[in-house]
TrEMBL record:
InterPro entries, sorted: Aminotrans_V_dom, Aminotrans_V_PyrdxlP_BS, Cys_dSase-rel_unknwn_funct, PyrdxlP-dep_Trfase, PyrdxlP-dep_Trfase_major, PyrdxlP-dep_Trfase_small
UniProt key word Transferase: yes
A Gene Ontology molecular function term of the record: transaminase activity
Annotated family: Belongs to the class-V pyridoxal-phosphate-dependent aminotransferase family.
Cofactor: pyridoxal 5'-phosphate
Residue ranges annotated for the Aminotransferase class V domain, each copy included: 2-376
Superkingdom, natural source: Bacteria
Stored Pfam families: Aminotran_5
Record-given protein name: Aminotransferase class V-fold PLP-dependent enzyme
NCBIfam families: am_tr_V_EF2568 (TIGR01977)
Length: 386
């Protein structure tokens, strides 16, 4: 199978990730729940992974790295734990439903106000709209770093400066950028970052987290066992325990840490360069097909791969072929895996005018090859000719 649905999850994992999970299954006990070797070794691994994640994202305090089951859970914890009745937030039309649905629920249950920043004809955010939507009760700006539909990258430094200038929390979903685009929370002014482990970080499913880089007290999302302060009727106030009730995903965290080790060894710049070279190869190979449409700023793809500023996603449609049909043809006839449809990002499709047809999304990984891309180009041409 040629796998180009890495924006959903990376299908091929580094061998050290698999080995780390196997080691955890064999030797680790329950972190923080005992003083014997298996529990202590597990606890050390968990803390070391917190340190790796904190350093990886440029944050200041490993104790404010909170493990979750995915980015969706992390975003729910942050959004439901931070906003109160009457608050106002600014987000964007590029957001995934993991942000949109919590916001809609907060709008309904807590009467929070929401304004969404639109996109221009090239798919880029309308940055001049951020200042225009700030009100007296605005509490935060919530941004998707890389659109999971178009691959367009948000300018975090610009938005971060706007947030700081207006004393707002800056919350960022990095599900599509973590692992292939360098992120520095201190440099960009991110207060809270939510990530998933199973995509660009090469970790297993069921992993993700929150990284807090300022003095924010997020209300508890769930309460229960913590391994400490057991006679306290309430969840401990201290991070990370405050937001980590229950047993952690020890095997998943071990795999996630190994995924970050792999990225650090290869180099995030090298990973991005290779993925952009594959994306550019596919773009060049199909751009002259009659009726093909792209939904991103294609001028980026005329640059050298190391200079391309884009996520590892190429969104296309072809006149006369529904995106779902194209995905089906590629899967059934050529064993090529892509994603078609709405991608859980309804506002983005409304903005792009693709509600009915959806979009065929090709997303790349460091483990994809030029030979695979050439086979995809050949397949698309044959489908269009037929």
């Amino acid at each position: 199978m040629i796998y180009l649905d890495n924006a959903a999850t990376t299908f091929k994992k580094p061998i050290n990730v698999i080995e780390a999970i196997n080691h955890a299954l064999t030797y680790y006990g329950n972190s923080g729940r005992g003083a014997y070797r298996a529990a202590l070794d597990s606890g050390r691994m968990v803390y070391e992974t917190r340190e790796k994640i904190s350093k990886f994202f440029g944050s200041s305090d490993p104790s404010k790295v909170i493990f979750t089951s995915n980015a969706t859970e992390g975003l729910n914890i942050v959004l439901f734990g931070l906003f109160c009745s009457g608050d106002h937030v600014i987000s964007t039309v590029t957001e995934h439903n993991s942000v949109l649905r919590p916001l809609y629920k907060l709008e309904k249950t807590k009467n929070i106000g929401i304004d969404f920043i639109g996109i221009d004809e090239s798919g880029k955010l309308k940055y001049d709209e951020f200042e225009k939507h700030i009100k007296e009760n605005t509490k935060a700006i919530i941004v998707n770093h890389v659109s999971n539909v178009s691959g367009e990258i948000a300018d975090l430094e610009y938005i971060g400066k706007t947030a700081r200038k207006n004393n707002l929390y800056f919350i960022v979903d990095v599900s599509q950028s973590a692992g292939n685009i360098k992120i520095d929370m201190n440099k960009t002014g991110i207060d809270v970052l939510c990530f998933t482990g199973h995509k660009g970080l090469f970790g297993p499913g069921g992993t993700g987290g929150i990284v807090i880089n300022s003095d924010i007290l997020i209300d508890t999302f769930k309460v229960g066992g913590s391994g400490v302060q057991s006679f306290n009727k309430e969840q401990p106030d201290e991070y990370p325990t405050r937001l980590e009730a229950g047993t952690l995903n020890i095997m998943g965290i071990a795999g996630l840490g190994a995924g970050i080790d792999f990225i650090n060894e290869i180099g995030i710049t090298n990973i991005h360069k290779k993925e952009m070279s594959l994306l550019k190869r596919l773009y060049k190979g199909v751009k002259d097909i009659k009726g093909i449409k792209f939904y991103t700023d294609c001028s980026e793809f005329e640059k050298e791969p190391e200079s391309i500023r884009h996520g590892s996603i190429l969104p296309i449609n072809i006149d006369g072929i529904h995106s779902g049909d194209l995905a089906d043809y590629l899967g059934e006839e050529y064993d090529i895996a892509i994603r078609a449809g709405a991608h859980c990002a309804p506002l983005m499709h409304k903005a792009l005018g693709t509600v009915d047809e959806g979009i065929a999304r090709f997303s790349f990984s460091y483990f994809n090859t030029e030979e695979e891309i050439d086979a995809v180009i050949k397949a698309i041409k044959e489908i269009v000719e037929e």
